[in-house]
Design a protein that fits this description.
8 helices; two-stranded antiparallel sheet; 8-stranded mixed sheet
Length: 269
């Protein structure tokens, strides 16, 4: 595998991809023996969850497995996460959607890419679903979408004034809240997330969708994937992974294998 585009957090980040909060750190993984100057292959854009980054599984495991199947991938840090610029406190869903669309435009211009899929885990699943919907509404649809434990419950969490272990007044949240004492979520995130039209936006995508959800997910309830399944209808399938948790650490191989098989079918490989 070949890795491109990674950054060093000890130096100012230079990246060709820019989001609302600045430069976006990313890593491209290509199949072994792939020559981007002469060869072509499909690529999957991998989107991590809240408080995570591109280096946290399942993203590296997915990138490795996709490469073995002849599929390139690009994983990136949303603004305020990992090595990308910006503050976590300033992160909102709209800004993450802008980050995702900036990555999409970058991938669209890579001459060796001949098909694009989207994958998102947790909050990244919300971003992947809404990005696919917005792109489709503008006539530029991805080939397929995988949502792993898509965290649409963030809307209800913000409406109810309880996000992880932090509580707040949803009608008038503070400047920021602290999740687990050190992860800051800002007032703008807490207010705007309450108004999201997650499923309505996602519904514009009419292509194939794979939903994967662990039966022992203690963070994102299964009803989130079930609601997405209802939204997408016959173009989607939901697979519940028995015994799997939210971080995809108990049965990662199953999740990775089913993801790769889905994209192989989507890209006709």
């Amino acid at each position: 595998m070949v890795a491109l585009g990674d950054s060093n957090r000890n130096v100012p980040l230079k990246s060709p991809i820019k989001g609302p909060e600045g430069a976006i750190a990313f890593k491209i993984t290509l199949p072994d023996g792939f020559n981007p100057n002469t060869d072509r292959c499909p690529m999957v854009i991998l989107m991590h969850g809240i408080f995570a980054n591109k280096g946290i599984n399942p993203m590296p495991a997915l990138a490795k497995a996709l490469a073995k199947a002849g599929i390139a991938s690009i994983r990136f840090d949303f603004d305020g996460h990992g090595q990308s610029q910006g503050r976590m406190q300033d992160m909102t869903i709209e800004k993450e959607l802008a980050d995702a669309q900036a990555v999409w435009k970058y991938v669209r211009n890579l001459k060796y890419v001949d098909g694009i899929g989207l994958l998102g885990h947790s909050q990244g699943g919300v971003i992947a679903s809404m990005t696919a919907g917005r792109l489709s509404a503008n006539g530029d649809s991805p080939d397929g979408v995988v949502l792993i434990a898509p965290g649409s419950v963030i809307k209800e969490a913000c409406q109810n004034g309880k996000f992880f272990n932090a509580t707040f007044n949803p009608a008038d949240p503070p400047e920021y809240i602290r999740c687990w004492g050190f992860m800051k979520l800002g007032r703008e995130y807490l207010l705007t997330t309450q108004q999201l039209d997650i499923y309505g936006t996602a519904s514009a995508f009419k292509g194939p969708v794979l939903l994967l959800h662990g039966s022992r997910d203690g963070i994102v309830p299964l009803w989130c994937s079930e609601k997405f399944l209802e939204t997408y209808g016959t173009s989607a399938q939901l697979q519940v992974i028995k015994g799997e948790n939210h971080t995809i650490s108990r049965h990662r191989k199953i999740v990775v294998t089913r993801t790769v098989e889905f994209f192989q079918k989507v890209f006709s490989l």
